[in-house]
Amino acid sequence: TSGLFGLASVKFGGAGMADDEVRNPAGARFNESTMTAAVALGRREKRRLRRRDGGAPLAAAAPLLGLALLFVYAWAVFAPVAVERRTEDAARAALAEAGFDWADVRVSGQSVTLVGTPPDAEAEAGALAAVRARSAKALVGAAAPATRVRLEGDDDADGDAQDGGTPEPAAGDLPAPSWTFDKTDGRASLDGVVGDEKTLAAIRGVARAYETAGGVSAVDDALTLDAVAADAGHLDLALRSADIIGRCEAARVAYADGAFNVDCTAPDGAGEAIETLARAPLPVGEFGDVFVSEALEEEPVEGYATAEERAACNEAFEALLTEARIEFKIASAQLDEASAPLLDRVAEAAEACPGRLRIEGHTDATGAGDVNERLSGFRAQAVKTALVDRGLDEALLEARGYGERRPIADNATAEGRARNRRIEIRAVAPDGADDDEAAADETDDAESADEDDAEDEAAGEAAN
Fold it and tell me: Tens of pLDDT along 380-418?
């Protein structure tokens, strides 16, 4: 302060003072050396004040730091609540869409417990699979919010504890089970051998869940029981196989000779999640080939319907041929006259479908397999001829007989055998064109044989 006043005195000094002297307001005189000391003192005081105020930037940042801590606290408190709510909503939606109204939901974080009494093992497995497979919107794409799903009272995190306390049979020296699950054009097929009713019911439960809410229009079930290993590891892997089939647009998942193989075309954006599921550590066996790719948008192919058009056509044909059946004379490929009105409606539906159609004949398991396959081919050809007579383009129709190879019901009952004797009509996909044409050529060759002789061979198959 003295230094400042001294400077002012220099500027406004009065007369009669020497050039090297100044006077402060108090009247004291300073020479040049005294002035220099005063200025140095002022500078030191200024530096002291600056050091004393050095905490000001930190004090100014304190509110921002407080806001950041408040945000972290709010995230820690409320984010788990949001995740839990999303998990619960997804689980409830999955159960409602699949029709499992016996189950309620209790959620802790991303762990889901189903509360209720399932009517059977198939319903239990289906409900568990539906919740596991349910996806929900995430920050990037979609993900499955439920990381752990179990039934109340089941100590196994995956819901695979034994039913009713019955102990699992020991694997011992029994061979391993094997299976092949396929999915194409919205239709799934289950084939293979498993060792117990629990595994069989669980796999069928998963298939039921996807048939209800997973984009599968029908399931061809050819799974059988045999004396093979039945343990928790193989059950877990079988359920994973069925789960993958349901998530993929088209897939084949096989387990044979201890090797687990996956070939999946995933929906757009779902490939990473499916591959993570497929490559998770195996409870039994070892990895074979695992290939997961995402579906590319289908390019139109001349002479074939698009995927959307095929789905609509297949749905229309399924509705027609489920409500009524195309009937034939016993042990014959001759159409029953009573089926004429149904064939008229089928022809109208076929006329509305662009592209090629395949007429498939199926039989039950009564009689010799080769005879049944020939008979089913003749019957498919008879339906094709009937549709051509009603104005359809023969070049767009194919006929193929599958015999007893694709049952949809149990051949051990009369009702099941009646369901297996059927005609199906499906829109043909362009990527299967070569295989289907070769199969149609084989059917045409079979048709070149004398039909009367074929019918004589089939005389023992009166039920068909």
Answer: 999 999 999 999 999 999 999 999 988 888 888 888 888
Would the pLDDT of 73 be above 80? no
Q: For residue 234, give Cα distances in angstroms to 92, 195, 209.
A: 29, 9, 20
Spatial separation of the C-alpha atoms in residues 343 and 298, rounded to whole Å: 32
- Burial track 63-94 (b if 16+ CB lie within 10 A, e otherwise): eeeeeeeeeeeeeeeeeeeeebebbbebbbeb
Query: What is the pLDDT averaged over residues 286-306?
Result: 79
pLDDT of residue 220: 87
Amino acid at position 310, single letter: R
- Residue 243 phi, psi (nearest 5): -65, -45
| Local structure of 302: helix, strand or coil | coil
The DSSP secondary structure of 200-259, one letter per residue, reads HHHHHHHHHHHHHHSS--EEEEEEEE-SS---HHHHHHHHHHHHHHHHSSEEEEEEETTE
Percent of the chain with pLDDT over 70: 65
Sign, Cα dihedral of 267, 273, 275, 277: negative
Classify residue 167 by burial, with Cβ atoms within 10 Å: 0-12, 13-18, 19+. Answer: exposed
What's the average model confidence in pLDDT over 212-235?
81
Can you give the length of the chain in residues?
A: 464
Sign, Cα dihedral of 73, 78, 83, 88: positive
Q: What is the pLDDT of residues 100-144, one digit of tens each?
A: 788 888 888 778 888 888 887 767 777 777 777 666 555 444 455
**What per-residue string of b and e applies to 399-417 under the rule 16 or more CB within 10 Å gives b?**
bbbbbbbbbeeeeeeeeeb
Distance, in Å, from the CA atom of 179 to the CA atom of 177, rounded to the nearest integer, reads 7
- Residue 268: Cβ within 10 Å count: 11
